[in-house]
Specification:
- The complex is a heterodimer of chains A (256) and B (290).
- With 256 residues, chain A is of the alpha/beta class.
- Chain A has a domain of 155 residues: 3-Layer(aba) Sandwich (Rossmann fold), CATH 3.40.50.300.
- Helix content of chain A is 25%, strand content 22%.
- In chain A, the strands form 2 sheets. In chain A, strands 5-6-7-3-8-9 form a 6-stranded mixed β-sheet, with helices on both faces. A 3-stranded antiparallel β-sheet of chain A has the order 2-1-4, with helices on one face.
- In chain A, a hairpin with a 2-residue loop joins strand 1 and strand 2.
- Chain A is globular and about 45 Å long.
- The N and C termini of chain A lie far apart (42 Å).
- Chain B has one domain: ABC transporter involved in vitamin B12 uptake, BtuC (Orthogonal Bundle).
- Helices cover 81% and strands 0% of the residues of chain B.
- The longest helix of chain B is centred in the last third of the chain and has 28 residues.
- The radius of gyration of chain B is 19 Å and the shape is globular.
- Classes of the chains: A alpha/beta (256), B mainly alpha (290).
- At the A-B interface, helix 2 of A face helix 9, helix 10 and helix 13 of B.
Chain lengths: 256, 290
């Protein structure tokens, strides 16, 4: 069997004295589409940052592509939850997407024709080719989110890490983004952090429930309400985890 | 300090004159050249200062440089020999303290700012005799820029252009999204310190033109106005350079006509245009909001 892309073994992370991740063991294999669910503060974003090498674990081990985190930046595409930037920043969508090529360039090496080509392809994949020259501050929330996905794709990564890409977009854009992920999962390994408990089961291959500790759910299992309620600490939608199908399923809604 | 203004005024009787006429004097030609050359550094580095909100840190670097002026007075050296190492040390010191030692950036800036000024005041106090040009380093005196300083400004301009051209994609990345730059494998701390050092070199240039106290204004105002017209960072730099040049030349000319302090007049011209631009934009956004 091939070496997993991400291996976490008894991973613990403390931030400011508080345990954010506690004894987490997880492996992500090539071709996986893993959804990470869990309440705010449950360590989802922290897990991604550990994989990216931005946060150091306090104990346990992590390897990404068989190396220490942060050593394989050219093979990972990262889509942050929100971009804290100045809307007045004079930069076009194209220039932001070009940043996805950074990890493939040496210091002082300028972006070339191939970089521009890849950036344009990524913009086409995310349906934004017509907005390439648009100033970043003039884009809507959904367009901005897709620019961030395009930026991650421009680096031609094997592994995509997405942090709540649908958190700040309207339902229609949410569908667009999931359609895009369905397309991307054919050629990429994807780890997706999300709160979309209602719809996620139709798209992903595995689900991890994260609230400091980890609860893994493989295909075929249904993540029952009691399991989710105990994860979130309040009633949430049931996650029906089955193979993707064409017609809509309507899990009954209960809101916290 | 008022005596030096009076001194300056006495040597220059009021006259209304056309631009080419005042270029008759060598010190005026040098002043205009200094204004134009300094605008290049100002426009380019000002763009980073504005988009990364480094205005306060730039002020800290400039004021720390006063310690360098004091040291050169004390040792009897050219003031630039003190300003350059002090401003570079301030840039690296503030950068490392705030980014590595978990000290709040404004605390680090405040400490350097005041300590640098104090070193300057004490060393000048220890130097026997009167410090005649002190005032011009605090508030600038573009009319006394010698040829050697012009050459130095040109050299620093070329250095700044070269570094910015070489580190173009890295500087854009750390300015726009530092976290992403870091996970892309960039050494963000080193790049950050390099950028602060470029700010320090710009401060060295600007001290001649507008003085330590008013450096921040010329670093931020032209770039901030330019930002509202610019689609890219490069255009912002070009527009900022153009605006800084216009403000400096207009200010210099007005200070000549009305017999005013040149540095302060340049700043007031810039501030006035900034205010008008801000008001026009506020009016425009209200119109579109309705």
């Amino acid at each position: 069997m091939k070496e997993p892309l991400i291996v976490c073994d008894k991973l613990c992370v403390e931030l400011g004295g508080a345990k954010v991740l506690d004894g987490l063991s997880l492996s992500v294999h090539e071709g996986d589409f893993l959804a990470v669910l869990g309440p705010n503060g449950g360590g989802k974003t922290t897990l991604l940052k550990v994989v990216l090498g931005l946060v150091k674990p306090s104990s346990g081990s992590v390897t990404v592509f068989g190396k220490e985190p942060g050593r394989a930046s050219g093979r990972i595409g990262y889509v942050p939850q929100r971009l804290y930037f100045d809307r007045a920043f004079p930069i076009s969508a194209m220039e932001v997407v070009l940043m996805g090529r950074l990890s493939r360039k040496r210091l002082l090496q300028r972006y070339g024709r191939e970089d521009r080509q890849k950036a344009l392809e990524a913009l086409e994949t995310t349906g934004l080719a017509s907005l390439a020259g648009r100033r970043i501050g003039a884009l809507s929330g959904g367009e901005l989110q897709r620019v961030l996905i395009a930026r991650a794709l421009a680096g031609e990564p094997e592994l995509l890490l997405l942090d709540e890409p649908t958190a700040s977009v309207d339902p229609e854009m949410k569908t667009t983004i999931y359609d895009l992920l369905d397309q991307l999962k054919k050629s990429h390994t994807i780890v997706l952090v999300t709160h979309d408990t209602g719809t996620i089961g139709r798209h992903v291959s595995r689900i991890a429930c994260l609230n400091c500790t980890l609860d893994m759910h493989e295909p075929g299992s249904t993540l029952g309400r009691s399991a989710l309620d105990s994860l979130y600490g309040y009633p949430v939608d049931v996650v029906e985890h089955r193979a993707p199908r064409s017609h809509e399923t309507h899990p009954d809604h209960r809101h916290a | 300090m008022w005596s030096s203004i009076a001194l300056l005024a006495a040597t220059k009787p009021i006259r209304i004159t056309a631009m080419p006429d005042i270029l008759h004097f060598e010190f005026m030609r040098n002043a205009f050249l200094a204004a134009i050359l300094s605008s290049v550094a100002c426009g380019i580095i000002g763009a980073y200062v504005v988009v990364r909100r480094l205005g306060f840190i730039s002020g800290g670097i400039a004021h720390t440089a006063f310690g360098g002026i004091g040291l050169s007075y004390y040792l009897g050296l050219n003031p630039l020999a003190g300003i350059i190492p002090f401003s570079l040390a301030a840039a690296i010191g503030i950068g490392l303290l705030s980014r590595k030692a978990k000290i709040a950036e404004d605390t680090a800036i405040g400490a350097f700012w005041a300590a640098g000024m104090s070193v300057g005041v004490i060393l000048i106090g220890l130097t026997p005799g009167y410090a005649p040009n002190l005032f011009s380093y605090l508030f600038g005196n573009i009319l006394t820029v010698p040829n050697s300083d012009l050459q130095l400004i040109l050299l620093l301009d070329l250095l700044i252009i070269a570094v910015v051209w070489l580190f173009d994609k890295e500087f854009v990345a750390i300015s726009f999204d530092e976290e992403y730059a870091r996970i892309s494998g960039l050494k963000t701390l080193a790049l950050d310190l390099l950028m602060l050092c470029l700010i320090a070199l710009t401060v060295v240039i600007m001290v001649r033109i507008v003085g330590i106290v008013m450096v921040i204004a010329l670093l931020t105002i032209p770039a901030a106005i330019a930002r509202s017209f610019s689609q890219s960072l490069y255009r912002m730099m070009a527009t900022g350079t153009l605006l800084a040049g216009l403000f400096s030349i207009a200010g210099l000319w007005l200070s000549w006509i009305f017999n005013l302090a040149s540095g302060a007049t340049i700043i007031l011209v810039a501030a006035l245009v900034f205010l008008v631009n801000a008001l026009l934009r506020a009016g425009k956004s209200r119109q579109t909001a309705c």
